[in-house]
């Protein structure tokens, strides 16, 4: 432990802070549809998710290895200032998208931050772009499509099998199923997302010689990362839960069960293969597929468009912020202090702004954070009538 300097300790604490934001940012992935359909009460849902996220952190370390020895080249001189800058960009992007109620990818924020800080800090040779393409970019495009198609098919099958059954019995049965399917997503989330922070801390320890190159995360790293993401999950990212549960589509119990089952399958398979995919994109794809596969086959496309734009911006935006932070951090202790002050100020400002319109367990299902979809009334001259109050936008 003699290698743990003050700066390394700061980086480890910041990594765990990112893990905490990852937890509350991604609670919606597992529990949004179960909360929206009434299968689980909000507080019960986040408690289950927290426990299973912690448990999932112990099931695999393949994704952690993708980060600590895959995305960046450990031999090019990665040092703690670079990793600190990467985490700052990722945290600020997480908080900004949470404030806007947008289910963006915490994973891609971290990858973007790491890539941007590394390029500025040690050069382009510090990033293994082959790994970035095969383990990150290709899964980013493929995983929501695969989850969406699987969810669409599962939803169609669920309604086909139960079309002649008693509606109340069917709903009750699928709500029971959702308790298990949403729990499986939480477990899968722990196997994928908690490992990303493990990888960052391990990379930090390797960079200062506390661990050999190619080392796996020590037990204390696994426990601390699992605990941080579990605590963040328990806090509940209610704004994003509202967007995913009520914003994308009017999800019913059969659709919720289908989307959760499809998403869990994709996440667990990808974790086993070491792909650092976005669980947010997978679960969002599953919800979209379920919405299109349901009886009304509808989505609220305004939120879909905003989500897709955000997905595309996440990696480059985090890279730019982290690159700027890396430039400052390398100027010396005053630069590191300035980056840390910017992180605290930015985080505090966004939290204060969020208190103007708080969203919590008591009102997470009350209103829709995007435009309500209503039929357009045609006036006597064949022109659309004036919009009604129901078509206005309600901020999350």
Describe the model:
There is one protein chain. This protein has 396 residues and is mainly alpha-helical. Helix content is 71%, strand content 0%. The protein contains 13 helices and no strands. It has helices spanning 6-37, 42-56, 62-71, 80-99, 106-122, 129-161, 167-207, 219-235, 238-247, 253-273, 279-293, 301-329, 333-354. Helix 1 (6-37) packs parallel to helix 4 (80-99). The longest helix is centred in the middle third of the chain and has 41 residues, at 167-207. The protein is globular, with a radius of gyration of 21 Å. The N and C termini lie far apart (45 Å). Mean pLDDT is 84; it is low at 368-396.
User: In whole angstroms, how far apart are the ends?
Assistant: 45 Å
Topology, number of strands: 0
Which class best fits the helix and strand makeup? Answer: mainly alpha
Low-pLDDT residue spans? 368-396
Largest sheet: none
Helix content: over 70%
Shape: globular
Q: What is the gyration radius calculated from CA atoms? A: 21 Å
Rounded mean pLDDT is: 84
Counting DSSP H or I runs of 4 or more residues, the number of helices is 13
Strand content: under 5%
Q: What series of H and E elements makes up the topology?
A: HHHHHHHHHHHHH
């Amino acid at each position: 432990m003699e290698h743990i300097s003050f700066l390394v300790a700061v980086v480890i604490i910041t990594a765990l802070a990112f893990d905490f934001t990852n937890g509350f940012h991604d609670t919606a992935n597992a529990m949004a549809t179960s909360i929206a359909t009434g299968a689980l009460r909000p507080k019960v849902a986040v408690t289950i998710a927290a426990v299973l996220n912690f448990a999932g952190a112990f099931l695999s370390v393949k994704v952690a290895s993708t980060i600590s020895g895959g995305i960046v080249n450990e031999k090019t001189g990665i040092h703690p200032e670079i990793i600190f800058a990467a985490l700052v960009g990722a945290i600020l992007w997480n908080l900004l998208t949470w404030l806007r109620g947008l289910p963006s990818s915490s994973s891609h924020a971290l990858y973007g931050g790491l890539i941007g800080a590394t390029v500025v800090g040690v050069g382009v040779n510090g990033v293994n772009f082959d790994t970035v393409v095969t383990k990150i970019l290709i899964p980013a495009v493929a995983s929501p499509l695969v989850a969406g198609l699987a969810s669409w098919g599962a939803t169609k099958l669920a309604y086909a099998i139960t079309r002649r059954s008693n509606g109340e019995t069917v709903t009750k049965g699928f709500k029971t199923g959702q308790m298990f399917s949403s729990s499986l997503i939480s477990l899968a989330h722990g196997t994928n997302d908690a490992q990303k922070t493990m990888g960052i801390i391990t990379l930090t320890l390797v960079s200062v010689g506390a661990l050999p190159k190619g080392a796996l995360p020590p037990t204390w790293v696994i426990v601390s990362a699992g605990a941080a993401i579990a605590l963040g999950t328990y806090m509940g990212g209610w704004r994003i839960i509202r967007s995913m549960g009520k914003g994308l589509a009017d999800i019913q119990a059969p659709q919720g069960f289908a989307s959760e089952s499809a998403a869990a399958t994709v996440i667990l398979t990808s974790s086993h293969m070491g792909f650092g995919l976005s669980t947010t994109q997978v679960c969002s794809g599953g919800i979209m597929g379920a919405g299109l596969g349901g009886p009304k086959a509808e989505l609220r496309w305004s939120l879909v468009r905003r989500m897709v734009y955000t997905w595309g911006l996440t990696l480059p935006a985090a890279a730019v912020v982290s690159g700027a932070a890396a430039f400052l951090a390398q100027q010396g202790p005053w630069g590191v202090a300035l980056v840390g002050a910017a992180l605290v100020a930015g985080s505090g400002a966004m939290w204060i702004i969020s208190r103007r319109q708080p969203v919590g367990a008591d009102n997470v299902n009350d209103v829709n954070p995007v435009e309500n979809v209503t039929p357009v009334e045609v006036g006597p001259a064949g022109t659309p009538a004036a919009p009604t109050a129901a078509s206005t936008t309600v901020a999350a």
